[in-house]
Amino acid sequence: VWLIVDINTIGLNPFMESTFNGNLEILYSNEYQIKNCFEKYFKQCSGFKNLKIGAVKSLSISIPPYAFFGMNQIEGKITLSSSICSIGKYAFSDCYFYKIEFDNKISINEGAFYNCANINTTIDLSNFNIEKANYEIPSRLFSGCSKLPSIIFPSFVERIGNEAFSGCFSLSFHLDFFANIHHIGKSAFYRCLSLKGSLEISQNTKYIAESAFYGCTGLSGSLTIHVGSFKKPTFIGPFAFKYCTGFKNGKLFFFINKNDEKEIHSINDQSFLIIGNEAFEGTKFKNVYYNGRY
Question: Could you give the CA distance from residue 18 to residue 63 in angstroms, rounded to a whole number?
């Protein structure tokens, strides 16, 4: 059973303190109506299972920043209709729903789903217009989504924003995704405890920021880092792999392109590789190799 509400046709809080047993579809005609919608129209309501958000008369509208911040009336699924073109900063942060679906490709901004701790279904990032965000996954996008099980990364992603997946304790995905990444932001995968297996960072990755993989205890086996060139050195920030204790008795490999290696005899090693304080503290690698040499 769906309750379909055109916001243009109701006053403030017509359903206040009502209890429902079904689904809710809300139709908007402008972004102003979306802001604090549940506080204005559904205050202290309960019992809604799923929510669909759309627009009247085939309009194209954006969900403004903080629009549904802290919304706890919907514990099921949220569907964004094809009329929704973008999601503002922290628009759904601290919400209770477990799944979100999209009828169309959509633009996203920082913290859109921050601390949505009940999301427990796979997210396919190809549903997002990452191309419009300079091929970057926005900062804090899923930070604190502790039940998020997996992510599907499109191949064109080049940058991961600060804290994008920080605290996603259940997150797991194919680690070969990093082959195309240029920049991994600060605390991007901080304490992503469920990342498993060996990790290989390609020569495309020039910047691994502070605490990028801090406390990712599920990583194990070997860590392979393909170092940049003299003109484009690789930077590994402070605490980047600190307390990745699963690497115990594993191997750390640094590889430099053979053409670049010819220059290394006359150029300080730090021209190719810059390592911050405590970057590998607590990892306890058994062996460290440089271009295959122990």
Answer: 25
